[in-house]
Amino acid sequence: MPARARDLNPDLSARHLFGAELRMLREQRGYTLESLASSLKRSKSAISRYETAESMIPPDLPGALDVLLEANGLFTKLYRLARKEIHPDQFRRRMELEDRAVHFGEYTGQIVSGLVQTPAYAEAQFRAADPCAEDSRIADLVTARMTRQLRWAPHGPGRLALLLDEAVIRRQVGSRAVMREQLSILCELALTPRTTIQVLPFSHGVHALMGGTLTLLVLEDGTRVAYEESISTGTLVEDNEGVLMRQWHYDLLRASALSPEQSRGMMREAMRSFE
């Protein structure tokens, strides 16, 4: 006798609604879990977890479901809501603004920006933050982080300018192989038509942004916002005076940083230290 399907509460969250709609349309179109998984080239257990809202939805699944189940864009729309639910409340407003941004500038002092992290680097960071977390939880966090990168892909709509403290490329996160892979990606992105990465060397000394992360967003209508982040909290700054002050601090650091080509050279040297 087959196991009884787990009950869903579509009113609980967008992920539950996504799962409920997936199960309903799957059954209406005559697919079993096995046949749908086969058509999507995924495992039956993975499809089951998406239906029951137990796992974060991967970014390439909604579009495939819309086509296969003739859903007229339903799953893509639901995904835009569901993808935010893995993040704490204080970050959701920032994510909404990030989705509307056409230019993104960020200073990070300790870790690589989540917008350009490799999956392995992100996993190492999440495991360090919560060593007791279950593998499924870590996998959800990594998937959620990877979805944020879609807007800044080579053919995406946004432009990305990152400023990294030298500590970011020197501090080992994960294994040496993880660091080499991550630094290789940073070297590729150092200077492209849509991305720049600059390193602020230790020799610069003390500065106004030490101890945190600063994100600067320019939205499609020209609105500018800033977001400051510490270990566990984030502050959104939307008043013009506050944003301009933070933009000034960021611009001063960029002026003192290595050029993108010089930064690429330093990152390649750092890669060799992880061989």
TrEMBL record:
Pfam families named among the record's database cross-references: DUF5753, HTH_31
Residues spanning the membrane: none
Segments forming domain HTH cro/C1-type: 22-61
PROSITE patterns on file: HTH_CROC1 (PS50943)
Record's signal peptide: none
Protein name, entry field: Helix-turn-helix domain-containing protein
Organism listed in the record: Streptomyces bohaiensis
Lineage, highest ranks first: Bacteria, Bacillati, Actinomycetota, Actinomycetes, Kitasatosporales
